[in-house]
Specification:
The chain has 23 helices and two strands. It has 557 residues and is mainly alpha-helical.
């Protein structure tokens, strides 16, 4: 990858959405122009990020952009490597699809007519900028800024419409997010006090020189802060009550992206800042509980959005499982599974939005005969539902097999327990998704809950001044079809994508491409860092690192 291309283009992933948001905000009285500006901004941003991914895929390595006229580690640093590049592209595909869905629906269709909704498009672009900034951030404080940008935008999107349930959910979301952010900021302050830097490449060297007890404390503080954002158990209590209250497009982008930014931060913490197996036992326990508690919660829900919110929590556990086994096989599967889950989870929430748009409800007991009402919606549901459940040959099955292989390579008793938990969770996920399939799509309508209940719900909408339900959902179907196609396409490109994920995992484990890109360290320091890290991850030499046949992580420093 040429240095000029990265230096010129990478910051635009953040700057373009911010500029687009400013323009969209000036067009509050011109909704069509506002939509065109937002869509154009996202298309250009996605094209840029695809170009960066192609360059990274072709040339490998990592490149750093140093902003502000300073040298590293003082400069504001943006880093483009394989992992960040693929996350940028996947997030752009998702936000563009969701924006098309929202534009076709009219985000205000289920809102009070007194509530201004012109803020949706600029806020959506600000959310996109925050996500991109978090993926590119090369220092902890810039990562914190990325989180705060996307969280501030999410507060607005979550409460859009100003209804009672949304405001109550927004209060919970705000309180939990503020606690997480304060903890993250305190951890940054302590890390800076101990090392004199917040640059992550510099920290990769200096954190290892600290007292082990202090390292452990800083490590756990970051994990707790990121664990709240990623919604891992027991820090996931806020998510099922917050996400389902928002409009369908907002819920879809939240479910697809926001928790994955937390997972991304955890992956960087465990590979770049604190490599080794110091907290792997804790992470394995957390991963198992997240999988099981989440899916057990989904079993007792009767609203499709709440079911999907609990499955979202559950499948975060798979990603933590892949990180916690501390080998390249597991980390490779984690990268692949994150890509898969962003796509599939967003698709399922958009399908739920289609159901809600057509019927006025997402309550399983109030629905029936959807396969007759809309056969296309039935198809759009069953494909990602089977994918989420891990049915072969879909990408969900491929990712879960990779995670199980990582657990087998780890070989510990706890890893085997996690393998069993992951299989049980996958089966329960399939049961949950098929319950929706049989009851919502195939149960006769007369067997559903009293139709008067549905009439009451529509009467409530009319009483609140809401617009009447519509059946002209063609504009909503197309972006949903697009994401379904992308989800199926992951199966067909699973081989190259898994190979790319393996290269990304190899770079993260060795750390040298990332550190060289930022600090330009000399060959001797690189060799020493690599040797130390290979020992941490139980890899016998760099030649074996790229084979994916690694063993369990080794002893602590």
């Amino acid at each position: 990858m040429s240095n000029l291309s990265v230096v010129t283009l990478a910051p635009l992933s953040v700057l373009l959405p911010i500029l687009g948001a400013a323009i969209a905000f000036t067009l509050v009285r011109r909704p069509v122009s506002q939509v065109l500006v937002t869509l154009s901004t996202l298309v250009v941003t996605m094209s840029l990020e695809i170009w960066l991914l192609v360059e990274v895929w072709s040339n490998g390595g990592a490149e750093a952009v140093l902003l502000g006229g300073w040298e590293a580690p003082i400069a504001i640093t943006l880093v483009v490597d394989r992992f960040s590049a693929i996350m940028l592209v996947v997030s752009s595909v998702v936000v563009l699809s969701v924006l098309l869905f929202a534009s076709a629906q009219g985000i205000g269709d289920d809102e009070s007519p007194q509530q201004p909704v012109s803020i949706f498009h600029p806020t959506f672009l600000i959310l996109t900028a925050g996500v991109s900034n978090a993926f590119l951030a090369g220092d902890l404080f810039n990562l914190y800024v990325g989180f705060e940008i996307l969280l501030t935008a999410s507060y607005v999107l979550l409460t859009i419409g100003g209804t009672g349930p949304r405001v109550r959910a927004g209060v919970t979301y705000v309180v939990v997010s503020v606690v997480s952010s304060v903890l993250f900021l305190v951890a940054i302050a302590m890390i800076y006090g101990a090392t004199g830097t917040v640059n992550m490449a510099d920290l990769a060297i200096k954190l290892g020189e600290l007292d082990p007890d202090l390292q452990q404390l800083l490590h756990l503080m970051l994990l707790v802060a990121f664990g709240i954002k990623a919604a891992v158990f027991p820090l996931s209590f806020w998510l099922p009550d917050s996400y389902p209250t928002a409009p369908a497009p907002v819920t879809a982008v939240f479910a697809g992206l926001l928790t994955k930014v937390g997972v991304y931060a955890i992956v960087r913490t465990e590979t770049l800042l604190f490599p080794g197996d110091r907290v792997n036992t804790l992470l394995l326990v957390v991963a198992g509980l997240t999988m099981l508690v989440g899916i057990l919660g989904a079993l007792v829900q009767f609203d499709i959005k709440r079911v999907l919110s609990f499955t979202l929590v559950s499948h975060i556990g798979y990603m933590i499982f892949g990180v916690s086994v501390a080998n390249q096989v597991g980390l490779t599967a984690t990268v692949f599974y994150v890509i898969h889950h962003i796509t599939i989870q967003t698709t399922l929430f958009l399908v739920t939005g289609l159901i809600e748009y057509r019927t006025g409800s997402a309550n399983i007991d109030r629905l029936g005969s959807m396969a007759k009402i809309s056969p296309l919606v039935a198809i759009l549901y069953i494909i990602p539902a089977l994918n989420l459940g891990g049915i072969p040959p879909f990408s969900g099955f491929i990712g879960k097999v990779g995670l199980i292989e990582g657990g087998v390579s780890n070989g510990s008793a706890l890893a085997w327990i996690l393998i069993a938990a992951s299989i049980i969770t996958s089966l329960l996920t399939l049961i949950v998704m098929m319950r929706i399939w049989t009851r919502v799509f195939w149960r006769p309508a007369e067997d559903s809950e009293d139709p008067a209940m549905r009439g009451m719900e529509e009467a409530k909408r009319a009483e609140a001044g809401h617009k009447p339900l519509r059946t002209d959902s063609n504009g909503l179907v197309m972006p949903t079809v697009g994401l379904v196609v992308v989800g199926v396409g992951l199966t067909f490109v699973a081989g190259p994508l898994f190979s790319f994920a393996d290269e990304a995992a190899n770079d993260m484990i060795h750390r040298t491409p990332y550190i060289e890109a930022v600090l330009g360290t000399d060959a001797a320091r690189d060799a020493q860092l690599e040797a130390d890290l290979l020992e941490d991850w139980g890899i016998a030499g760099s030649d074996g690192a790229g084979t994916g046949q690694d063993t369990q992580g080794g002893s602590d420093d």
